[in-house]
């Protein structure tokens, strides 16, 4: 079985006009993604940003997928880790809030989380600290399920938020402006009488801001996973 990128040593350092390392490659890739999204990241573009030939990068990684894994692990290194002295609810709330804030700073990270767990050193250290902080939760299986449930909520929420931000930038309208522009259409649709419950939701309920909506949902999830 071939070694994962985390286990493979980097090529020996050698004099070059543009010295390379995995750390420099990942930093350049993250800058490209911050500016123009993951679609702007390629080995060729990263090499160009570093002033190096694309083939030189293959000494440090084999595929673009490995580069994305390295980028995701770099983000896990930026997450706040729970304090071992925190109770389980404080720990899980901190995990959720830190993950959300990071995805807001680096929107492309929302596209890389979920699915199979990242096995990089930063991700493993983050998971270790998170599970250790849930030691007072009870059974280990219950703690793992609770963390998975909270992470699933956060991933869904931040992807929805990031998608909304991208749509706003592309359309030039924020959510309030879009709703105002859609108002006449909704009035005509509701006048048919086919959507009475939806009409009540739109006209009678409050529409909190994203922060309030996230925190309210998070508290509901925490109440649901409480042992």
Which labels suit this protein?
227 residues; flat; 63% helix; mainly alpha; 10 helices; single chain
Q: How much is the average pLDDT? A: 90
Q: What separation lies between the terminal Cα atoms?
A: 41 Å
What order do the SSEs take from the amino end to the carboxyl end, as H and E? HHHHHHHHHH
Q: List segments where confidence is low: pLDDT < 50 over at least 5 consecutive residues.
A: none
Main sheet overview: none
Which value, in Å, is the CA radius of gyration? 22 Å
Report the total helices: 10
Helix content estimate: 55-70%
Taken as a percent bin, the fraction of beta residues is under 5%
Describe the global form.
Answer: flat
What is the SS-derived class?
Answer: mainly alpha
Question: How does this model look, in words?
Answer:
The chain is mainly alpha-helical and 227 residues long. The protein is 63% helix and 0% strand. It is built from ten helices and no strands. The protein starts with 21 loop residues before the first helix and ends with a helix. The model has no long low-confidence stretch (mean pLDDT 90).
């Amino acid at each position: 079985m071939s070694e994962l990128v985390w286990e493979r040593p980097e090529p020996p350092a050698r004099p070059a006009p543009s010295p390379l390392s995995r750390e420099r490659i990942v930093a350049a890739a993250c800058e490209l993604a911050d500016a123009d999204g993951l679609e702007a990241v390629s080995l060729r573009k990263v090499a160009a940003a570093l002033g190096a030939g694309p083939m030189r990068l293959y000494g440090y990684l084999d595929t673009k997928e490995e580069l994305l894994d390295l980028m995701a692990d770099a983000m896990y290194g930026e997450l706040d880790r729970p304090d071992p002295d925190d109770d389980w609810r404080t720990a899980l709330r901190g995990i959720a809030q830190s993950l959300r804030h990071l995805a807001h700073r680096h929107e492309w990270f929302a596209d890389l989380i979920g699915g199979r767990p990242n096995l990089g050193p930063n991700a493993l250290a983050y998971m270790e600290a998170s599970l250790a902080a849930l030691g007072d939760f009870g059974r280990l299986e219950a703690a793992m399920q609770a963390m998975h449930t909270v992470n699933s909520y956060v991933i869904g929420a931040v992807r929805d938020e990031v998608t909304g931000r991208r749509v706003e930038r592309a359309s030039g309208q924020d959510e309030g402006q879009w709703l105002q522009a859609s108002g006449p259409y909704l009035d005509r649709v509701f006048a048919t009488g086919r959507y009475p419950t939806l009409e009540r939701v739109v006209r009678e309920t409050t529409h909190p801001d994203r922060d309030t909506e996230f925190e309210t949902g998070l508290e509901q999830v925490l109440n649901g996973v409480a042992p």
